[in-house]
Amino acid sequence: MKRRTFLKSMAATGVAASMTGAGVLTREAEAAKKIDIGEVKSVKVDVLTETSWFNNDIFKKNIMDYGGVMTNQYTIPWEWDNAGGYSTLITVTTLEGDERKILMDFGWQKEWMDYIYEEKSDVASLIEKNEIDFYVLSHFHLDHLWGIESTLKRKQDITLYAPKTYYPEDMALLKDKAHHKAKDKNTGKMMHICKNDYPHKGKLILCDPKGEKGEGIYRLMDGVAMRMFDVPILFRVRGENVLYFNVKDKGIVTVTGCCHPGVLSLLSYARKNFKGYKPYGCYGGLHITLFETWDPKFDDIIKGVKAFKIKKLGCNHCTGWIWAEKATAAGVPVVKGTDKYKTYKRYSTVAKASNVFLTNGDTVTF
Ligand SMILES: [Fe+2]
Ligand SMILES: [Fe+2]
Known about the structure:
About 25% of the residues lie in helices and about 25% in strands. The chain contains twelve helices and 15 strands. The N and C termini lie far apart (about 55 Å). Bound molecules: fe (ii) ion (2 copies).
């Protein structure tokens, strides 16, 4: 292969810049390139709902019956009664002592989300009174997006951050009053899977890995940055927005929906790119032992997380109870949840007395 052709093919994979003379950065230049995202005083996370579905076996059966995890999520007639949702309320206190609120993700089943926003939290009133400062969609998975009617029926004119990597069905649900249906292969019937009669009318900020000014991140406010990781995800979804908070005197906290890019990638990104990086905390679905089965590679994630020496790890949703229990036993500082979830009208069939998940109604402050 000629040198020019070789370099051209390497450039396509982003490798050339680091191999040619001009692209090699000295340690000083690397340090100078690091981003200062500012600081906040504290970050409080309220787990509104992390029970995206209530029964793992039913969820798994729906997937296997329709071709496995690479199937387009809009072609599976998901068991409606098993749907819940994922949604998180984040309260940031600024260095000046002011509070800002971020609503991340909008759940799956509208009726469950109405119950969560109206009866189990004050989110319905926060939306109606315009007291949510930022709305963030982490990614286009059904359990994070399909319940958005519960939010939009209260206020359509919201500024929403979402990954740029959407598919037509996602945008139709957001903007075009879509009523999506999927075919039940046994009966031949078209089954309701999701709808939204309240189209989004506000500003939609579609995020990509370049970031808003080419620095790889979106700055929501001082001390709060968001990064879009363009990764392929299950069920024909792509890309996830991840939140980073820099808490004064403590360090960086990541908050995720499902953490599809991988928890170690998120922590590595912060270490490589943020000025004065100190690891501190982590919250979210961490997408590890989703179906509660073990593989030796999950031990490596425990080792990896320990190596970062984070001080507080709050996890739930697709993290898997098995991973959270093993990580706790191995000395990862997993924040324990409470029994509050038992006061909800439904809860997950895999919830256990070990309380290694922060589950519905729990709170963690960083
Ligand atoms: Fe999820
Ligand atoms: Fe997901």
